[in-house]
Amino acid sequence: MKNGIFSKLCYLYTFSALSNVVLGQNCQLTDSIMNRNWIFLSNNDLLRTDYIADGGTLTLYCNEHSAAWDLKCTKGTLEQLPYDAVCSERLSLSVVPQYKACSADGANGQLYDMVYSFATGFTVTLYTICYCTSRETVLYSIHKAYGFNLPTGNYQRPQFKLLGNPNRARADSFGSDEIYKTFQTLLGDGQTYVKSNRDYAVQRGHMANSQDFLTYDQMDATFLYMNVVPMFRGCNLRNWKRIENWIHRLPDKHTYATVVTGTHDVLYLQHSQTHRFVPMYLMPDEKNPMPMWMYKVVRYQGECYVFATLNDVSSLPAIQYSNICRITACPAGLTLDEEPGSCVSYCCGYRHFVQQVGDFAKMCSVSSRPSTFIAFL
């Protein structure tokens, strides 16, 4: 047993899942290591890569009442843990207000950090949220997407947690029964967007993407009601996912991309009988809106990329959508489906987008990446 960066004892179970595959002299990790009971640390930070360099240390931390285990990598072999090592209760994530105002899309909110706080006073922020309580919605998130290639086939999605600022009514409004009732009330009995209370046509769409985080505990931390907005299933599983996948593959193992994810405007859908367009809110008093747009602004190695997805699965072009995007050619490796059921998405000019959305999305000089505009919305 070895002392970690903390001062007390932590028992862990056997980590036979730690792969001792030699890639050079590194200790390569596999997804089988990623049991969600543990916090994974390296170099006094959360583990960000899927390998431990030769001579480096993987620290496994249980909670503030226990010390950590240090597992050293030596020429491609990682130290083993005792067979009876266990951790019954992992360190909990905290939502910490910055007490700083933020604003977007004509709404005011506050910044909140999603934080691990360790016993020594050492803290790590996983991502940051701008949350608006008056609208009960997240305006935008900011996180870093690190480069790694660790499969997550064994990952089981956790239940969403009501941690931080949202109230119980917001969480309840995402329930399938409530969504069906809301769509029937707002759009009439003839509406076909949500066909029943078991249709699941509207999902909880992540702002900070879970797959951009390496370990299961980090991924779990994104399943908060503070980090989701109502999104049509076609968006969430198709074009929006293609954009997320492209961003996830962008950094190499020694770099990261900074990602701002946000929403803009409220979605309007056509009433089944009156044919008028109705703003879609999942809660009374214009709270928990379905966004018209979801977007991502990505900064990587001095370049900025912008992607916008229209949160609408209909093929009705009757409403004039807000012009936040001047369409540009998409970067290599990203192909977007033009079918409405996939939720039409665009690659956008950075300069125009930042002017429309706000300075919080400004991560590059407006002249650093000139765009060739193809069309206007």
Automatic annotation (TrEMBL):
The active site is at 206 (proton acceptor). It comes from the Eukaryota. Mg(2+) binds at residue 236. This is Uncharacterized protein LOC101892747. Belongs to the DNA/RNA non-specific endonuclease family. Pfam families: Endonuclease_NS. PANTHER family: ENDONUCLEASE RELATED (PTHR13966), ENDONUCLEASE-RELATED (PTHR13966:SF17). Keywords: Endonuclease, Hydrolase, Metal-binding, Nuclease, Signal.
